[in-house]
């Protein structure tokens, strides 16, 4: 097995998370959207409910950094809300609802990737 860099592991996790969202019927609007205050990993839309979903993707190769629930602190949630507000301010479309989700992707050496999806964390 080839050793992946941290950036490659993160990119793989984001791709798997995006595939997961598409499988749920969401439409991907942007990946790795950046502004001067930070980055949003994935921005998706749920066409059935008119909801825009901002997704933080956490990719892990083990459990050393804690679980998904600990991955987004109150400070991180505030930053995600701020970034979401900046993105929304630049859009012409209005959304029925806004949601912040976290998707955890655990990539093991001998197993298929495990995906955990927490909705409405922020």
TrEMBL record:
Q: Which Pfam families does its entry note?
A: UPF0102
Q: What NCBIfam families does the database record attribute to this sequence?
A: PRK12497.1-3 (NF009150), PRK12497.3-1 (NF009153), PRK12497.3-3 (NF009154), YraN family protein (TIGR00252)
- Annotated PANTHER family: UPF0102 PROTEIN YRAN (PTHR34039)
Residue stretches spanning the membrane: none
Q: Which GO terms describe its molecular function?
A: nucleic acid binding
The family note in this entry says: Belongs to the UPF0102 family.
Q: What species does this protein belong to?
A: Mycobacterium cookii
- Please identify the protein, giving its name as recorded: UPF0102 protein MCOO_00460
Q: Quote the InterPro entries the UniProt record gives.
A: Restrct_endonuc-II-like (IPR011335), tRNA_endonuc-like_dom_sf (IPR011856), UPF0102_YraN-like (IPR003509)
């Amino acid at each position: 097995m080839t050793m992946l860099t941290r950036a490659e592991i993160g990119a793989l996790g984001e791709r798997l998370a995006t595939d997961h969202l598409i499988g749920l019927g969401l439409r991907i609007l942007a990946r790795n959207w950046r502004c001067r205050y930070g980055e949003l990993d994935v921005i998706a839309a749920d066409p059935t409910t008119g909801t825009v979903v901002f997704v933080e993707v956490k990719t892990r190769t083990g459990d050393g950094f804690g679980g998904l629930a600990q991955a987004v602190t109150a400070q991180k949630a505030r930053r995600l809300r701020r970034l979401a507000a900046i993105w929304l301010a630049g859009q012409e479309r209005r959304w029925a609802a806004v949601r912040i989700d976290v998707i955890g992707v655990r990539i093991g050496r001998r197993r298929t990737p495990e995906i955990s999806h927490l909705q409405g964390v922020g």
